[in-house]
Design goal:
The chain has a 4-stranded antiparallel sheet with strand order 1-2-3-4, covered by helices on one side. The protein has a domain of about 130 residues: Nuclear Transport Factor 2, Chain: A. The longest helix is centred in the middle third of the chain and has 23 residues. It is an alpha+beta fold. The termini are far apart. It is built from 8 helices and 4 strands.
Length: about 200
């Protein structure tokens, strides 16, 4: 039993001496080496952070910068474009009409909610017309309302931006009052006019 106690005591002494031993501190790197390590750490941290993207707002559009010549030329382009669109409508050419529409216009106009809303109008209900597709909208709404538009009457435009205009016809009523009737909002994309609404 004494041998066992002495082995336990010896083991405890060895263990406590191991715990009481102080480890030698690591040598500090020389100052030059420490500065280099810090610089490398900063470079590494900077590389991980995404660069802030500087977004510059475009200057607001100033309609007064549109020259008389630019206005006149654009108005003539728009008049020819509308003449062509009217011809497509009169000929009931859905595919070519659809080709001059913006994707956003198609999405909004052909949405189930919009088609249902139009289908529920009095004129559609009275004629028992239910719109289900953009082509239905073209045949039952666009063709009847636009086929008789005559752009030989006075067409004018208002610039909304360099490449975006509102086109309207100017009509004079029987009482001599001049009316501006909105036809389209158009945008010129890749040198071609597109109907936005």
């Amino acid at each position: 039993m004494d041998i066992y106690k002495s082995k336990v005591i010896l083991a405890l002494l060895i263990f406590s001496s191991i715990l009481s031993c102080k480890s030698t501190p690591e040598a500090a790197p020389p100052p030059e080496k420490e500065e280099q390590v810090q610089a490398e750490a900063q470079i590494s941290a900077a590389a991980e952070e995404p660069e802030e993207e500087i977004i510059t707002e475009p200057a607001p559009f100033d309609p007064s910068k549109i020259t008389v010549e630019q206005h006149s030329q654009t108005r003539e382009e728009v008049r020819r474009f509308i003449d062509n669109v009217n011809l497509l409508i009169r000929n009931r050419n859905f595919r070519q009409w659809e080709a001059v529409l913006s994707p956003h216009y198609i999405e909004i106009t052909a949405s189930a909610e919009n088609l249902q809303r139009i289908s529920e109008t009095v004129i559609m209900r009275n004629n028992r017309i239910v719109l289900r597709t953009l082509e239905d909208y073209f045949l039952h709404v666009v063709v009847p309302s636009r086929a008789s538009v005559n752009t030989q009457e006075n067409i004018d435009i208002e610039f909304l931006s360099e490449n975006r205009v509102q086109a309207f016809s100017i009509r004079v009523t029987n009482t001599g009052v001049e009316q501006h009737v909105m036809l389209y909002e158009l945008e010129k994309i890749d040198n071609s006019w597109t109907i936005l609404n």
